[in-house]
From TrEMBL:
Limits of the Helicase ATP-binding domain: 30-205
Protein name (Swiss-Prot/TrEMBL): ATP-dependent DNA helicase
Residues of the full protein shown: 1 to 450 of 983
CC annotations in GO: chromosome; cytoplasm; nucleoplasm
Family: Belongs to the helicase family. RecQ subfamily.
Helicase C-terminal domain residues: 244-394
Entry's Gene Ontology molecular function annotations: 3'-5' DNA helicase activity; ATP binding; ATP hydrolysis activity; DNA binding; four-way junction helicase activity; metal ion binding
Localization of this protein: Nucleus, Nucleoplasm
Keywords, sorted A to Z: ATP-binding, Cell cycle, Cell division, DNA damage, DNA repair, DNA replication, DNA-binding, Helicase, Hydrolase, Isomerase, Metal-binding, Nucleotide-binding, Nucleus, Phosphoprotein, Zinc
GO biological process, one term: negative regulation of macromolecule metabolic process
Domain of life: Eukaryota
Length: 450
């Protein structure tokens, strides 16, 4: 009998899913079920990370899983979801009525506990009351797992550090024989190392991470000083990526290829949208200066394929999931490697060949650097703010440095996420035509000297 038979069966019984969403999800669940090691799961948003602790938790009879989650809103969503599936999940927080709270506590202290998942914010977890409760649950052997959702919150390198997450490490020491599961969306190497260290996960940790490498994306860098007409260059590239419109006669507009051009400022967004449109490729502008209704309308017209190109500031893209994005262009240098990966990664979600291009200009870099330096100066002596602005500047310099080097573009991301070097296979300008990139870079440096 295959070892996963019982997990597949439980998956169907509890959630109604006939199969795992991915091999990684299945492997992570099986590792947790084995209870031999702490488990770390890093997969993109929407990959089904919750199931990696929920299914193992449900497979432990007479035990419950403690889930740490940073926000009450997230907690509510998860509890609602589980309740619909007839799985008992509760929380203990300041928003509850005394009656609700008493009901939860009664159940936890009863000889037989019905609650399978107890959701807690790290702030709540730190209270004396909760610490005593944990002690009691532990004594009666009622603890199945500790799960830390959004585990990147423990890291000062992450984008939303929560100091209270740091205290969770003490619990790891206190309850040595309870297995810990830490989950987060794609995290950098630094963040992952921080999670291991701060949560004091027991090594070797069973690690399940989606590889960062996207084999269907071709990356290249074009030095702005090497092109004559900006808009013509952009339009030609867009045309090349989108293919001949005649070929798509039968395809509904919304499913045809489309693209995103990221610019740094509203002015640039407007300028590029107009400029590219004049070259005969329909483009709309999206930025925070538009009214909400206008923004929605612009986004919809792009989603529906009325305009194939959207020019946008980086406020665009969260939650946008259009499979047929054939190219993502950065007309200005991205802020850092994480943002570059995330923004360019909106291309080719359908797995088809797609293109990510960065237009690099010394002048843009100078002005971004200047702004970041100003931020940093203003934040002097203001604790966390100072740290954040300094870090932003350092992270920007990393991407600048990368743009001025001849090194596989996919390798950049692999190093950042701590993955082994990927088989690029000519999916970047450096691997495809190294000589040409060297020349372009030489020219770039020469012109910058003048
Ligand atoms: P994440 O935390 O990684 O962002 P979630 O745990 O919120 O993702 O899950 C995203 C969606 O995937 C949910 O709607 C969930 O019900 C669904 N899902 C999870 N596992 C499976 C599966 N094996 N089969 C089908 N749907 C699944
Ligand atoms: Mg989640
Ligand atoms: Zn390469």
């Amino acid at each position: 009998m295959p070892e996963n038979n019982s997990t597949v069966e439980a998956l169907y019984r509890h959630f109604g899913h006939t199969k795992f969403k991915s091999q990684l999800q299945e492997k992570a669940v099986n590792a947790a079920v084995k209870r031999k090691q702490d488990v770390y799961v890093s997969m993109p948003t929407g990959s089904g990370k919750s199931l990696c602790f929920q299914l193992p938790g449900l497979m432990r009879e007479n035990q419950l899983t403690i889930v740490f989650s940073p926000l009450l809103a997230l907690i509510k969503d998860q509890i609602d979801h589980l309740t619909k599936l007839k799985i008992q999940a509760d929380s203990l927080n300041s928003k509850m009525t005394v009656k609700e709270r008493d009901r939860v506590i009664m159940d936890l202290k009863a000889v037989k506990t019905n609650i399978k998942f107890l959701y807690i914010t790290p702030e709540q977890a730190a209270t004396k009351f909760f610490q005593d409760l944990l002690q009691l649950l532990y004594k009666h052997n009622k603890l199945a797992y500790f799960a830390v959702d959004e585990a990147h919150c423990v890291s000062q390198w992450g984008h939303d550090f929560r100091p209270d997450y740091l205290k969770l490490g003490d619990l790891r020491i206190k309850y040595k024989d309870v297995v810990w599961l830490a989950l987060t969306a794609t995290a950098s190497k630094e963040v992952r190392e921080d999670i291991y260290k701060q949560l004091r996960l027991q090594t070797p940790v069973a690690q399940f991470s989606t590889p960062s490498f996207r084999r269907n994306l071709f990356y290249d860098i074009v030095y702005k000083n090497s092109i004559e007409d900006d808009f013509q260059h952009l339009a030609e590239f867009a045309h090349h990526c989108l293919g001949d419109p005649k070929e798509f006669k039968g395809t509904p507009k919304s499913q045809r290829g489309c693209g995103i051009i990221y610019c740094r400022t509203r002015d640039q967004v407007e300028r590029v949208a107009v400029g590219v449109s004049k070259q005969g490729v329909g483009a709309v502008a999206y930025h925070a200066g538009l009214k909400t209704a206008e923004r929605t309308q612009v986004q919809e017209s792009w989603m529906e394929g009325v305009h194939p190109i959207i020019c946008a500031t980086n406020s665009f893209g969260m939650g946008v999931d259009k499979p047929s994005v054939r190219f993502v262009i950065h007309w200005d240098c991205p802020q850092n490697i994480a943002a570059y990966y995330q923004e360019s990664g909106r291309a080719g979600r359908d797995g088809l060949q797609s293109y990510c291009r960065l237009y690099y200009g010394r002048e843009d870099v100078k002005s971004i650097r200047f702004l970041l330096q100003q931020d940093s100066q203003r934040a002097r002596g203001r604790g966390d703010r100072e740290l954040l602005t300094e870090r932003a500047l350092k992270q920007f310099e990393k991407i600048v440095d990368f743009c001025e080097r001849v090194s596989c573009r996919h390798r950049l991301f692999a190093d950042f996420f701590g993955d082994p070097p990927p088989q690029c296979n000519g999916q970047c300008d450096v691997c495809k035509r190294p000589k040409r990139v060297e020349k372009a870079l030489e020219m770039f440096h020469r012109l910058c000297m003048d």
